[in-house]
Amino acid sequence: MPRKTLSVLGLRTTVFADRSEVGLEFSARRPRRDAAPVFEDAQPPVAPPVATSGGPEAAALAERVGALTWYHTLELPHGIVTPGYYDHRELLPRYRLPPRLDGLRVLDVATFDGFWAFEFERRGAAEVVALDVREKREIDLPPRTRAAMTEADLSFAFGRGFALAREALDSKVQPLHCNVYDLSPERAGMFDLVHVGDLLLHLRDPVRALTAIRSVCRGRAIISDVIFPDLDRGTGGVPLMQYQGGRGQNIWWRLGAEALRAMVEDAGFENVEEVSRFKYGQRGLPPSIWHAVFAAGV
Ligand SMILES: C[S@@+](CC[C@H](N)C(=O)[O-])C[C@H]1O[C@@H](n2cnc3c(N)ncnc32)[C@H](O)[C@@H]1O
After folding, report:
1. In sequence order, which residues have a C-beta less than 8 Å from that of residue 20 and are 6 or more positions away?
2. Which protein residue's CA is at the shortest distance from atom 7 of ligand 1?
């Protein structure tokens, strides 16, 4: 049957022509492609941005926005909206964020284009730090994948969307180029609120990363990731996750929600609570990816 497959960050969403089936596949179900570059076949699912107000300045911004590939859907001046793969705007209520963050020092781990960091700034945070790696070479890649990549692949720069959005929004969010594993109070200081979304599935050692995140948290943490509820079914609460090996599109783990909870607890967080669970999807496609949001204290 004719079908269309879109893929980003390892999640392949297949839509059959008659819409009879929509599913998620992981790269490991396909023949192994150790050399596949990360984010390789990502295509923006929406039209280029259009300025709804303003003159040449707006047109220039729309052109710069249109020249980049976007992960996040960001509202910029002049009515310009970035054509992100994911649109978190409608999902915000599910994260149980405080309506105001006045006076707080906030960290957004793995910020990508910065949707969450800019949202924290909008809610009045005293200071927002947005952490991400600088180049693709810094992410967890299986050795064979890394060895097969060219220097151009490895030096692919993250953060161009973030930098443009920061400039357009006249934002004070502070970028921090740092691998999550290297996060420490000495490196970044302490934070009242720490947010990390959709990072752990991309890491070889999620508990080590969570432990580093815990080391800089003096208040609350909001931790969310892609989950696979089938892994929790009928296990009586046993935490399960399935190894994916970081191949294809850089997915290391298929997480059950109980495994995600256990890892957050084992990293030293207290009062770990699942605050929501919902399906979302790439913009323009039916929601098909399960997601769990956990809140935790220290
Ligand atoms: C799927 S995106 C998640 C974006 C955002 N956190 C969200 O929830 O919408 C994954 C992000 O993790 C970052 N990342 C991957 N490995 C990392 C590492 N070892 N340390 C810090 N960031 C990393 C990537 O550069 C990318 O920005």
Report:
1. 1
2. 197
The number of domains in the chain is 1
Task: Name which residue sits closest to atom 27 of ligand 1, judged by CA.
Answer: 112
Q: What is the CATH number of the domain that holds 154?
A: 3.40.50.150
Which is nearest to 48 in space by CA: 68, 71, 77, 75? 68
With beta carbons less than 8 A apart as the criterion, state whether 264 and 207 touch.
no
Nearest CA to ligand 1 atom 13: 110
Q: What pLDDT shows up at residue 6?
A: 42
Closest to 71 measured CA to CA, from 252, 225, 282, 293: 282
Predicted confidence band at 46 (pLDDT cuts at 50, 70, 90)? Answer: low
CA of 158 from ligand 1 middle (Å) equals 9
SS3 label, residue 160: helix
Q: Which domain holds residue 126?
A: 3-297
Quote the tokens at residue 265.
């607890």
Q: How far is the CA of 132 from the centre of ligand 1 (A)?
A: 6
pTM: 0.86
